[in-house]
Every structure is written in structure tokens, then in C-alpha cells.
Amino acid sequence: MKKKPTRMQQPEIDRRTFLSTLGWLGVGLSGAVGVLGNLMYLKPAVDYGPPTRIRVGRPDEYTVGIKETRENERVVVVREKEGFAAISVTCTHLGCTVRATEGGFECPCHGSQFDNDGFVTGGPAPSPLAWYQVSIAPNGELEVDKNVKIPAGTYLRV
Amino acid sequence: MQAPTPTPDKRTAVGMFFESVYRSIFRYGRLPRDGEGASYAVFNSLFLHIHPVKVAKHSLRFTYTFGLGVIATCLFVFLTFTGVWLMFYYFPSATEAYGRMLDLRSAVDFGFVLRNVHKWAAEAMVFFVVLHMARVFFTGAYKPPREFNWIIGIILLLLTLGLSFTGYLLPWDQLAFWAITVGTSIAGYAPVVGEPLRRFLLGSDSVGQEALIRFYVLHVVILPGLLSIFLAVHFWRIRKDGGLSHPADNDTPAIKE
Amino acid sequence: MKDVDTTQVYPRDPRKTYGLMELVKGTRPTVGLDEDTVYAWPHLLVRELVIFLVVAACLLGAAFLIDAPLEEIANPNSPPNPAKAPWYFLGLQELVSYSAFVGGVLVPTVIVLGLMLVPYIDRKRVGIGVWFARERWLANGLFLTFLVVMVILIIIGMYFRGPNWGFVLPWEATTGH
């Protein structure tokens, strides 16, 4: 056993070491699978929160230039000449609710400011407000899908 | 086993009965008021034997430790007690929780005392755990052989912060809601793990019912359980590492490296 | 029967349970080499009991004198201005208001890892068991600076931050909602 292995010899692994290594690998692997399974269990799969696809009324209810804040849905519906858009009112800084103002949005918590397209114009916010996809539901109402984020400036033409 | 030599007995049968019950619990009669008795007092008790029989005079000096670790432990004991008591009335529901807080304050006898003690003990625990850490640092008590206990101490500090933070949401008032919104958003800034961690904590995209139930379970079961285990290891290590730090630890290889 | 030596090596004292006591030489248990020690009972335990009682008294006193804060019911549509994290995270929030990455990621990671590495970097066994040992001026100075900076940041966050996270003086502060 103490012989220095030459190039011709295969490194010796005795049966006991091999089986015990295999055993410990098995224990480790099942442990890892168990941890992974538990983490997957804890990952929120079903969203019990407020619905993410929301109907916000018919297009003709909105006049051009309006910014209507829907507080409960945490979204502001914008009607411009180009069409409709839905912008998130959740501040990208620390999650407060922004307020629509003349020139855009501002966060009352820590003073972040955004322009009409949700781009940061001041304050600590690191990124622009999210734009959500807007579509026309079968019944003719506007539908905002908060799961789908789209680039700023993308309007839905009606 | 040979019984102690019986002395002429003047006791009644009832007295002897109680005597035997007492002995079944404590094994010894009145302990001698000497070193031997003092030793038995400590190591025959499950609760006291985390202490050594004898301790260095140096570690008893109040101006050395200021009792900070003991204070933090006492606060944890009070928090566990008041916390369990609060659980009798608390209900982790976004619609119910706040009402229960109002009831605790006004309707339940001594409800406000339990809530207030829990709140102030929680704030104090964060404070005293940090002070305890500062004491350990400024007295060089983290040096070998106590390095690992310092690490456990940091884990205990993080668990204390976690407990305080998860408890913060439970009253479901404005303070709670926005502090947790802001706090979890800070966590969300961590690269890669930040956003999954935030979602794991909140169970959703924003603070709501899912966040409340998750914070509740973390606050009343998982984090206190972990903290108790690490606390036990922390105490055990104090003894294994030779008691509290002591000037005699300087360059005296108590544990050879 | 063979002649077997039946005397026990450690004769069992009927008043003792099995324990390390029976393996210790001498009549008293000892810890450490020096005998500069006292019995845990009563010297240590009485002190602990006193601390326990003082803590209990202080908590009860505080509980009767100061009510734990309780604001209006949570309302996701009306954030307070400013919204503040719990006090021990205000230092981080203060940093986050300058840079999200620094306050939210860099500083907490550096603090936790740094603290964990301390005993493995600073291994010289000098200055143990004394407050602010002269030999440890560098380590103590660094840690003190760290604590003071954290306390200052927390105090700024608690008292000097008003609406829009702007700087206010605490005696002029009005809580906006």
C-alpha cells in the first residue's frame, strides 16, 4: 500500500474507501436535493395578492392627456395622443407609492422624481418606473397585465 | 448502594413521605454550606450546570462585562415568555391583526403590559447584543481560542435583527407596513439573491397577507428556534473555550496550536 | 473462587452520583491553574439573579410608562413621508439614499464578512481580558470608528430626515403623511 504509484500502476482505491466515498456522496446528494426541494416549496408559486391582470374601463372613458391613478391596482393609466399606457406607481427606490404630478411623478417617501414617461429626473431612485402591457379585452375594456413589462414609450393605439 | 446511616427518627410518617419525594427530586438533603455543597448546587441542576462549579474572580467584576451578555439573555427569556403569551390573542391576518392590537391595548387585562414589554425588550435586545459585541471586541475576547464563538455571536446578532424585523410587521399598522416595504426593498438590491430573497420573504410582489403569514412563521417558530440552538452552542463554547476571557489568556497556550 | 481484587479504583461515595468529581484529585474541583476562583453558587448565580430582576423591573417600568407605538391601520395607498425602516436599519437606509448598491449590498456584506474574519486576522494573543488594551489600539480604534459611524448614520436617519428624505433639524420636524 505504501508503494509509490508508478505511471503503469493505477492509483489504488480500496473497496472500503470507494464504497464509503460513494455512500457519503449519496448522503450529500440527497441532502442537497432535500434542501432544494424545501426552497422550491417556499418559493411563492401562487400569487394570493391582488390580481395582476386588471380591467381599467373602456378606452373612450379617457380623454387625451389624462393620467388616472388607480391606487388599489398600484398603476396609473395614461392616455396620450399616441395611445394608452399603464405605468407602475411603485417607486423603484424603496417601494413606496408615487403620486402623479403636473410634470410626472414624485415619491413622497424619499423624494424621487420621475418625468411623464417614468424616467428618473431626481432623487435616489435607481431605475425608471415600470411600464405594463395594455391590451383590449374581449369585452372592449382596457386590460393591464402587470406581469408583462414593456419598454417605456410603447403606447397601445386604439 | 449504601444509604446514609439512619439517625434516630423523630419524624412522622407524613414528614417521611415528603422527605422521600423531596429526595427523589433533589437526591440530596440540605447541602453542606461549603465548597462541596456549592459544587452540588450547580452541577446537579440541569438549569445551572451550564455554569462551571468555579468561576474566575476576574470574570465576575461588573466593570469587566457589565453583565451585557446576561442582560441580552434575560431579554430573550422575557421576549419568549411575552411572545408566547401574545400568541394567544394575535391573529396573522391582514384584516384581523390590527384589530387584535387595539383589543390588546384596551380590552384584554394587562394586554398592554405584555405588548409593551415585548416591544421594549425587543428594542433593548438589539441594543444590548450590539453592546455585548462591543465589549467582547474592546476586551480582545474574540482572540484564540474564542474565534468561533465570536462567529456564533455574529450569527446571533443577525438572528436578533431578523427576529426584530419580522416582528415589526405583525401589528399591521402604517409604521409596520412601510418599514417592511422599505426594509425588504433594501434587501432586494442585493445582486442575484436580492430579488428572490425579497419574494421569499414577502411571498408576493408587495407587502400583503402573504408577507404577514411568512413573517409570522419566521418570527414565532423558525428564528426563535435557530436562535435558541445557537445560543446553546454559544454558552457551551464559553465553557469549552475556558470561561470568559481573562488576562491569563495572553500568550499562555491554553490550547496548543 | 480466585482471589480477585474487588476494591474499586474510585470508591463510590453514596452521596455522589457518577461525575467528573470522582476523577479529580484533591478535595475541591478547580478550573484553570490558578486558584483565583470562586464558586458559581452563590457568587455568579446571585449576580445573574440580580441582573434578571433589574431587567424585569426596568421592562415593567418602561411598559407602564411608555406605550409601544401603534399608528393607523396599514394602508398601501398612503405612504408616510418619509417612510423609515426600523431604527437599526436606518444607517443602511441613509446609505441607500446615496447609492442603492453601496447601502443595500456593499456595506452590509463588508460589515458581516469583515466582522466574521476579525478573529482570524487579528490572532496575536495580546491585550485579552482588559478594556482598551494599549497594544490593541489599532483594532479598537477601527472598531470604535465603525460603531461611531453607524451610530451617527442611525441618528441622522432617526432625527434629521424629514419629508422627501430631506435634511431637517429634529426640533423643526413635522411628521408629514
Principal-axis shape of chain B: flat
Largest interface: B-C, 101 and 87 residues
* Regions with little confidence, pLDDT below 50 for 5+ residues of chain B: none
Individual helix count of chain B: 11
User: What is the fold-level CATH name, i.e. the topology of the largest domain in chain A?
Assistant: Rieske Iron-sulfur Protein
**Order of SSEs of chain B:** HHEHHHHHHHHH
Helix content of chain A: 10-25%
Mean pLDDT of chain A: 84
* Annotated CATH architecture of the largest domain in chain A: 3-layer Sandwich
Overall strand count of chain B? 1
- Domain module count of chain A: 2
In terms of DSSP E residues, the strand content of chain A is 25-35%
H/E topology pattern of chain A: HEEEEEEEEEE
Strand order of the largest sheet of chain A: 1-10-9-4-3-2
SSE class of chain A? alpha+beta
The CATH class of the largest domain in chain A turns out to be: Mainly Beta
Principal-axis shape of chain A: elongated
| Alpha-carbon Rg of chain A, integer | 28 Å
What does this structure look like?
The complex is a heterotrimer of chains A (158), B (257) and C (177). Chain A is built from 1 helix and 10 strands. Chain A is of the alpha+beta class and 158 residues long. Chain A has 2 domains: 8-45; 53-150, Rieske [2Fe-2S] iron-sulphur domain (Rieske Iron-sulfur Protein, 3-layer Sandwich). Chain A has a 6-stranded antiparallel β-sheet, with no helix packed on it. In chain A, strands 5-6-7-8 form a 4-stranded antiparallel β-sheet, with no helix packed on it. In chain A, strand 6 and strand 7 (113-115) form a beta hairpin. With 257 residues, chain B is mainly alpha-helical. Chain B has 2 domains: 14-43, no CATH class; 59-249, Cytochrome Bc1 Complex, Chain C. Chain B is 65% helix and 1% strand. Chain B has helices spanning 13-26, 35-43, 57-60, 62-65, 68-87, 97-106, 111-138, 147-169, 174-188, 194-202, 209-240; one strand at residues 54-56. In chain B, helix 6 (97-106) crosses helix 7 and helix 8 runs antiparallel to helix 11. The model of chain B has no long low-confidence stretch (mean pLDDT 88). Chain C has a domain at 87-172. In chain C, helix 2 (90-98) crosses helix 3 (100-121) and helix 2 crosses helix 4 (137-159). Chain C is mostly helical. The interface between B and C is large, with 101 and 87 residues.
